[in-house]
Amino acid sequence: MKRVLKYVWKDYKVSCIVVFLCIVLAALTNLKGLTFMEVLIDDYITPMIGSENPDFAGLFLALAQLAGYFAVGILCSYLYNRIMVNVTQGTMRNLRTALFNRMEALPIKYFDTHAHGDIMSVYTNDVDTLRQLISQSIPQTVNSAVTIVSVFWGMITNNIPLTLLSLFMVAIMLVTTKRIGKKSGYYFGAQQKDLGRVNGYIEEMMEGQKVVKVFCHEERSLEEFRKINEQLRNSADNANKFANIMMPINGNIGNISYVLCAVVGALLALNGYTGLTLGALITFLTLNRNFTQPITQISQQINAIVMAQAGAKRVFELMDEEPETDEGYVELVNAVQEAGGEIKEVQERTGFWAWKHPHKAEGTVTYTPLTGDVVFDDVDFGYDDKKMVLHNIKIFAAAGQKIAFVGSTGAGKTTITNLINRFYDIQDGKIRYDGINVNKIKKADLRRSLGIVLQDTHLFTGTVMENIRYGRLEASDEACIAAAKLANADSFITRLPDGYRTLLTGDGSNLSQGQRQLLAIARAAVADPPVLILDEATSSIDTRTERLVQEGMDHLMQGRTTFVIAHRLSTIKNADCIMVMEQGRIIERGNHEELIEKKGRYYQLYTGKFAS
Amino acid sequence: MIHTIVKQIKQYKKPSLLTPLFATLEVIMEVLIPYVIAAIVDKGIDGGNINAVYRYGAIMLVLAMCSLMFGILAGKYAAAASAGLACNLRDSMYENIQRFSFSNIDKFSTAGLVTRMTTDVTNIQNAYQMVIRIAVRAPLMLICSMFMCFFIHVRMSLIFVVAIIFLGIVLISIVLTAMKIFDVVFKKYDDLNASVQENVTAIRVVKSYVREDYEKNKFGSAAENLYRLFSKAENVVVLNSPVMMLTIYGCVLALSWFGAKYVVAGSMTTGEMTSMFSYIMGILMSLMMLSMIFVMLTLSTASAKRIVEVLSEEPDLQNGENPVTEIADGSIDFHHVSFSYRQGSESETLKDIELHIKSGETIGIIGGTGCGKSSLVSLISRLYDVTEGSVCVGGRDVREYDCEVLRDNVAVVLQKNVLFSGTILENLRWGKEDATEEECRAVCIQACADDFIQQFPDKYNTYIEQGGTNVSGGQKQRLCIARALLKKPKILILDDSTSAVDTATDAKIRKAFAESIPGTTKLIISQRISSVQDADRILVLENGRLDGFGTHEELLVSNEIYREIYEAQIKGGGDFDEAAGGED
Fold first, then answer.
1. Mutating which of A187, A242, A255 best tests the B interface, going by the most B Cβ atoms within 10 A?
2. How far does Cα A503 stand from its chain's mean position?
3. Chain B nearest-CA residue for A71
4. Cβ separation of A238 and B246 shorter than 8 Å?
5. ipTM
6. How far is B43 from A226, CA to CA, in rounded Å?
7. Model pTM?
8. Range in A330-339, A565-574, B6-15, B570-579 with the lowest mean pLDDT
9. CB-CB under 8 Å, A82 with B584
């Protein structure tokens, strides 16, 4: 909770101070209006009653003065509301942007280990509870607090015994609020939990609704649902009940307090004790009403505050996640190779890249051309330190070679591709890229030199052209179209209603699986990286599109070092080296002929296919 | 629309009626209290009459107690009524969804249904609670307070009438203006969230193209844009408060000025003037509440619409009259069947299919994506109804059968299959509720699932997580097959159900079928030639038409498409993997 306030304060110091002052001023003018009754009755009306020629000039002046105060009050109120909009929405914007920026910096591990729905819920539900807190609960509480203090001051200066009596009633109010609040809080918690269960159940059953139908399971699924639905009804009923009765209880304790003050006050006034005048008593009674009201208001905010606390916890949890670290210092730069073979760094894009490797000790800089030579030297890896999933991996890929990985699900093929671009860091061994340890290379530069086409393709909202250009932001339209042609994507794109300007939404849901894959290949082609990581599709796409995708991938692979998780014989057969993987180890390696010759696991896989 | 929602109140009519009743009584008490306050001031304090103070004090205490009681009752019944309505809404929606046919289900997304049954229902619940508590209360408060004002002093009340009209007009125009902007804002807000979603799911793409900064900029400007729009809308809304204050203060000033004159002139007492203050506050508060209700109702119309959509969706498959409950055998006949997913749509998914399958045959079905394989088999268990022609099972049109009987005898293992959270046994027993452990084990052996189940520490009591995330794709498919086998169906349909199972196991499963359930008609859809080539007959589909139907050998000779697929897969281009399709 403190952090939320700090967060607001950080960017909006001046606004906060102005808002606070405005709230105080507005509350004070409001109070002025309330106490005016005393002045009105005692100073103007009472003396004038019975007079033959009542003089209203004084009253007029007083009212004019009061109108002035009111004007200030209205102005303040408008001002603080207006500034608060700015503060709230601005903080929301900052919060969202900060969340998003932090999220982008998080390692892949975070996304692999957190449910995507949960991450989304931080942006929607949790941020929203904070909006309510900042825009309503906080100003409301400050306003109420100011009113309480100022009204209390007014009461004390008016009459002490009656103030004590009022205080006593407020104490009762606070105790009941606390008790009911506790109950209602308990049930609100239960309601949240039950809602979560209903949510989960619906999600699971709706996802499997067709299975439910096929198995004629409708009745039982409904029965089960009714049970948890009834629980939710029950907790929602209780939660709302306690929240609802808070208002009438506090309000009527306020009424009782009023009566008591009236009776005691009348006794005091009539007997002339403590110098209480009639007007003063009436004012006190008005103050009394205004003393209890803000307390009722604050008690209404309790639930919102509790919910915001839970929301704030989750928001800051995400914000406190450790971002991906990057200790690399070797950079990828544009370069030209001069006649003498010397490499020189240049600013413009030359199509020739070099690694700029500063050596701190000597203070020199060396340039190594980017060729795409990748070496795994005895690499061990585990997603956590306890369980290794890859053991003693040794791979040597010379520039332009094609390395295929084969093996059953869970053998560790995908894991290897996650290591080259450092989505995950290895526990032991070394990975070298053009002879440089990948740990020394800046992650951004490392990744920029690698192209990836994953099996499950992800596209972004935007035009087809924009999606292709994602590979290289400064690529011209012509370059993008050329890439699409290379990837065999051009023919289907031109058949789309708006061609390259067709808008894709919802992860490209208006395209078929095969078409999305072709776009992903085009995207990698426009990036034109020296090293490629491909995950061949296995999902059921029709034979013709499949052939297109295959050809597209083949075009893309030409002249590049390629790591491919292969499912297709054609890919495997023309690979320079095939790695047969099992349980995190490379158990066989060699080209197709060599492996067949060996009559080992590869041979078994290859021939087993025809066993039936 | 409102009618559909109101109909769901059902057994909660009583609290729904009691709430406004008690709210009304509470309001009456609240309106009376200032009057009594005036009496305390005028007759008691002003008149120096302590007995009058006691008397009116006591009356006020009684009124406060009544108000307390009515308030609590109103709150209690309001909670009961709204929570009950919400419960009924969820229940009815869920029940209706259970009656949905496949084509109904296709219309809604899972996420959409979840939101409708949770967030949207909660919106309605809150709106309903507010309406029954305040919608009666606020106008009533307005009327009563007005009445009391007129009762005290007619001419002064006229000032308030002017104030009320002024405030009413301003509030409504503020609300209307703001609503228009909010419509746009919420759309933008959805877009923003969609872009977050996109980045969460596609984070690997973002990171491998090093587009973090690009995405940050994109998001930053979208957030900035949203901020501007939101501020614009809110800036209109904040006018509420100063306008409200202006009116209140105006009334206070007017009341003080004219009140003083009237009191001095003797046509009004001090106490009456004080209580008029209370009433005028009451009037303005209730106007404020009314505008709040207005906003709330407008906001919840969208939710109500989405709920009603589900509630009023008519299931388009119904049992015929006197449904047949006995299925003779597992023969299947398609008579000139045409089918399209959308009624009256030009493009037909299946065109004029004529097909006869004998009971006990094993039929392989092959063809490219979108050629209509899944659609064809889904007509057999009447997951959809044909557009033209007829589908017969056991010699009778499927529309004559009782749906439940038909589906019990025609077991479909769907392409997109799911397991539910619960133990393996519980999942299997979906096929047959009272199946013994032995029965379950027997089908698992047939489906080649027993081996891996035995390797789990808890064996058949292993808990399957939601969506079956703790078993591999191939294991999931085998469990789904076992579950279907438990039904002991006359017809078994496997819709690409072994795609993630390795070829050897796939062959083993088919062998088990041939041995243990020879009498069952088996339809096997597959992308793999090897899965279908030893079937009795193979059906080749192309663009919704029957392109060939015969044995492997026959088709190799006579059918070009089949030969093309065969050659692509066996020679050179086929897939290599043990577990193609099951790769993550």
1. A255
2. 25
3. B246
4. no
5. 0.79
6. 60
7. 0.73
8. B570-579
9. no
